């Protein structure tokens, strides 16, 4: 396997490996050593080329402080290597051993009520703690030095799903580190007081040592700037914690690739040092977990959404954990993939940018907090349909890997994403409005169901490959994005701006000019005269301002329905729509076309949606939030004119389609996400790489069937 230096972070970045990673997380410490050789032989027969090991085994690597033992994993790696299987090792810092937390209790994470975490779970140590960072460096250095010359250890994963269990911490050492971070960021206390609005509620400080960690509703709301900086600090601390490990691993063997596997996306700035330190990023994908825990309304669409979100952070990625079956922890369980569905979900990952897929896990555990989280092999050591399905997928991808590697996912419509500050800015002052991602999901879901090439992109990436760009209510608009976005429009792109765009600066202050700010106003020809809340589309009232169940705050009695049911409507094309969440009244420049106007109440006749030609392109402004109906209409009225059309006309329900492409090839993935066979019409001419058969016109897919078509160029 050859590794190149990674290219700069971009949604368009392919992986820097010439190897498609296929395998599973493997836990030899969980089973009798007599099973290891049989496991390795079964893996090799199934097409596994790589396993991941060691992420929860610090207590085995270092059973006593300063005493290191590598024999168990050395033997496991050797047996796997005899079967032709490589190993990715992990730094085991997600589960520090008991001796560490007994001898150094200051490393324990502390919750908002001042309670220290206890041993017996995972992620109980505080990654902001200097003491814990020192121990993390020591175990990483010992492992790196031990494995530096082992040719079967080909790369490393840092930690495991950082910040997934919990990201916030309120330990005394965290407070000190936060104060240091702020002093370094601001230099003077006067600069911090300005940024946080210290004259409001007398929240100014005399010295950095006075600053505490922000706690919600104690007794009222802290400054949005204070909260934003706390989460910036947590992201910086997480990046620094990982950076310690990356430096050690790079020094030990510069040929190793290094990545991290993300679960939740909390308090990590992927576009900052965290992502720049890595060769690529891994994203753990459990589609049915999203449905069960978040009630998302369809695991196939939600898997596609999550993959597209993740790709915006880093470009192509690997999936170190892809669900293989039933999953559970004591408090929840997921649905079980039906025959063929495990393969289809893995193929969706490849279709949307994965250059490596590992099914979680090789064997299920017989003890601990995930005893019913199934693996490729069953509890009774018998390989059944999940093994057969994994084997089919591995062999299929191995046969076409040279076609897949080096390609990136096509996008005609880009949705602005991957910006840490805008993610956090909404959280600091949500006022019941949907987050940028919640709003963008409505547009993404419409595109997904209709086969439109849509994904997420950061404004600093190459926008020239897009036909349209949607900005989903980003309140912070940064000057460094102006030139690229204006060039995109002038060269023929369509830019869609949304309500509240560009209304705050980086300190979370409301800007002092009329929204949406100088540059966005100049591009759109629009200025906001007034804004206000409206009933959420399909709802009967506003979101609560207080959340007593979560925060213990006083909740006023509900208002009469008549006082909150203010519904606003607007026209677009020849249809009328109900506005959702917010209205804006707009004043427009003379060269602005009014696409839609408010049609009732005092707003009647005022512009609601506008368009303005800029160079060869146009800027559209939408003075409200999306609904499913509005998203569909915008695609028809605005995006169709920008040249955006479905990749396959008349796409049957439940069929997803996407394209991965390079200069010399184009691969169309056509995947049936349903339990019934389906006929897909209008498929362009090419060869299905999975069957070797030519395709043109109608394509028959079995239940959960997959086709990867090399299109004729």
Automatic annotation (TrEMBL):
Identification of the protein by name: Beta-galactosidase
Stretches assigned to the Beta-galactosidase C-terminal domain: 654-709
Domain Beta-galactosidase trimerisation residue range list: 442-535, 571-644
Coiled coil: none
UniProt keyword annotations, A-Z: Glycosidase, Hydrolase, Metal-binding, Zinc
A cellular component annotation (GO) from this entry: beta-galactosidase complex
Highest taxon of the lineage: Bacteria
EC number: 3.2.1.23
Chain segments annotated as transmembrane: none
Species of origin: Mesorhizobium hawassense
Secreted recorded as keyword: no
SUPFAM superfamilies (UniProt xref): (Trans)glycosidases, Class I glutamine amidotransferase-like
Pfam families noted in UniProt: Glyco_hydro_42, Glyco_hydro_42C, Glyco_hydro_42M
A molecular function GO annotation: beta-galactosidase activity
Catalytic activity as recorded in UniProt: Hydrolysis of terminal non-reducing beta-D-galactose residues in beta-D-galactosides
Keyword Phosphoprotein annotated: no
Chain positions recorded as substrate binding sites: 122, 160
Active-site residues per Swiss-Prot or TrEMBL entry: 161 (proton donor), 321 (nucleophile)
């Amino acid at each position: 396997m050859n590794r190149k230096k990674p290219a700069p972070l971009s949604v368009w970045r392919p992986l820097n490996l010439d190897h498609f990673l296929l395998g599973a997380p493997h836990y030899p410490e969980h089973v009798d050593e007599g099973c290891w050789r049989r496991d390795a032989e079964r893996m090799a027969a199934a097409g596994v080329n790589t396993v991941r090991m060691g992420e929860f085994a610090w207590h085995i690597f270092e059973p006593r402080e300063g005493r290191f033992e590598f024999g168990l994993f050395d033997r496991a790696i050797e047996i796997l290597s005899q079967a032709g299987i490589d190993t990715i090792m992990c730094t085991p810092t997600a589960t520090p051993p008991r001796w560490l937390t007994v001898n150094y209790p200051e490393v324990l994470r502390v919750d908002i009520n001042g309670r220290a975490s206890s041993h017996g779970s995972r992620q109980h140590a505080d990654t902001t703690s200097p003491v814990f960072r020192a121990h993390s460096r020591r175990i990483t250095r010992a492992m790196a030095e031990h494995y530096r010359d082992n040719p079967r250890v080909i790369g490393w994963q840092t930690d495991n799903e950082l910040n997934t269990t919990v990201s916030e911490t309120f330990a005394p050492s965290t407070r000190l580190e936060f104060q240091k971070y702020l002093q370094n960021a601001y230099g003077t206390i006067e600069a911090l007081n300005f940024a946080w609005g210290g004259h409001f509620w007398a929240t100014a400080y005399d010295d950095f040592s006075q600053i505490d960690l922000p706690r919600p509703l104690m007794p009222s709301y802290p400054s949005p700037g204070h909260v934003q900086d706390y989460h910036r600090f947590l992201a910086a601390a997480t990046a620094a914690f990982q950076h310690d490990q990356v430096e050690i691993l790079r020094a030990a063997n510069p040929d190793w690739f290094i990545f991290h596997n993300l679960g939740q996306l909390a308090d990590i700035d992927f576009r900052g040092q965290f992502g720049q330190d890595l060769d690529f990023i891994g994203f753990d994908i459990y589609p049915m977990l999203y449905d069960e825990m978040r009630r998302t309304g369809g695991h196939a669409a939600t898997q596609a959404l999550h993959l597209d979100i993740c790709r915006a952070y880093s470009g192509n990625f690997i999936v170190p954990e892809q669900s293989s079956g039933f999953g559970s922890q004591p408090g929840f369980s997921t649905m079980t993939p039906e025959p063929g569905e495990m393969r289809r979900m893995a193929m969706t990952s490849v279709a949307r940018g994965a250059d490596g897929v590992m099914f979680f896990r090789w064997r299920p555990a017989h003890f601990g907090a995930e005893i019913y989280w199934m693996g490729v092999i069953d509890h009774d050591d018998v390989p059944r349909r999940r093994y057969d399905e994994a084997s089919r997928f591995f062999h299929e991808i191995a046969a076409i890997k040279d076609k897949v590697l080096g390609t990136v996912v096509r996008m005609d419509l880009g949705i602005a994403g991957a910006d840490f500050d805008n993610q956090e800015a909404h959280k600091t002052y949500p006022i019941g409005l949907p987050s940028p991602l919640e709003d963008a999901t409505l547009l993404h879901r419409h595109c997904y169901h209709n086969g439109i090439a849509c994904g997420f992109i950061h404004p600093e990436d190459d926008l020239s490959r897009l036909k349209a760009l949607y900005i989903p209510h980003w309140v912070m608009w940064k000057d460094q994005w102006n030139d690229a976005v204006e060039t995109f429009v002038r060269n023929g792109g369509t830019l869609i701006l949304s309500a509240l765009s560009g209304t705050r600066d980086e300190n979370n202050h409301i800007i002092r000019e009329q929204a949406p700010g100088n540059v966005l106003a100049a591009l759109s020809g629009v200025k906001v005269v007034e804004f206000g809340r409206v009933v959420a589309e399909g709802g009967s009232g506003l979101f609560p301002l207080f959340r007593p169940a979560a925060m213990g705050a006083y909740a006023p009695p509900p208002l009469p329905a008549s006082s909150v049911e203010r519904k606003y409507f607007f026209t677009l094309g020849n249809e009328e729509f109900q506005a959702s969440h917010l209205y804006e009244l707009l004043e427009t420049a003379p060269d602005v076309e009014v696409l839609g106007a408010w049609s009732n109440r005092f707003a009647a006749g005022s512009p609601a949606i506008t368009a303005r030609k800029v160079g060869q392109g146009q800027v559209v402004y939408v003075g409200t939030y999306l609904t499913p109906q509005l998203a569909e209409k915008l695609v028809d009225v605005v995006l169709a004119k920008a040249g955006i059309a479905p990749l396959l006309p008349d796409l049957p329900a439940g069929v997803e389609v996407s394209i991965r492409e390079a200069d010399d090839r184009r691969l169309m993935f056509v995947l049936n996400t349903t339990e019934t066979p389906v006929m897909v019409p209008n498929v362009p001419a090419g060869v299905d790489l999975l069957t070797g058969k030519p395709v043109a016109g109608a394509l028959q897919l079995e239940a959960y069937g997959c086709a990867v078509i090399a299109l004729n160029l």
